[in-house]
Amino acid sequence: MSYYTPQGGLPPQTALLTDRAVVKPAYTFIPKGVLRDIVTSNLPGFTDTRSWILARPVAGSATTFAQLIVEIAPGGGAERPEPESGVEGVVFVTAGALTLALEGERHVLDPGGYVFVAPGAAWSLANEGEEPATFHWIRKAYEPVDDVPVPASFVTRDQDVEPRAMPDTDGAWATTRFVDPDDLSHDMHVNIVTFQPGGTIPFAETHVMEHGLYVLQGKAVYRLNDDWVECEAGDYMLLRAFCPQACYAGGPEPFRYLLYKDVNRQIRLT
Fold first, then answer.
1. Which residues pair with 255 in a beta bridge?
2. What is the DSSP letter of 32?
């Protein structure tokens, strides 16, 4: 498995200022070249840590979630990463080794490590290694439903979950699903989507779910509303609800991305 991880730094003063970054009413596109030192944020409660905040609930951006890339230096971490009791989260490690304490159990997460953190769970993070540890952290306010249990926390790995081929694609398009899509306990899914070179989304998906989409590996041309945008490992796309989307995957390696979507809830009107 290959997972692109930003390194920060700044380009030279001779670099051109033009890039692919764009914010439109239907979508936001943040290319990997934007993730520099100057746009990092500190997080209260964390030591020796910096983060790139990719999405947050704000006008013109996400409405249901926040997404961060977090880098913890050796010796750093947080005793209580999540400050809000009603918030669930997913942690996905892309580089280094991250030590997680979750509900009294200790786990060492390597690249590909995946954690669902239930709302209200007791957990902590630390980098006990010698290299920076980097992970995606997706946070959402959990929406409870009467007579539906709150989901439990769990730890797994990308390498241990078999991707499921999409119907009628001969394996060209597959999804690594970390939870059962029919489990109403979960009101968000964070999956990994894989296209083999030449694979496509063969129609313009238009749906109520909004997406956070971070390219882990490979390259493609992605349809965002009425634009076709070239994307590659390290780029991030935020698709607001009903934004049409499709893609053509380029070669020579698989095109893979970490995908957030909100699911399994009625539309609230009051």
1. 195
2. G
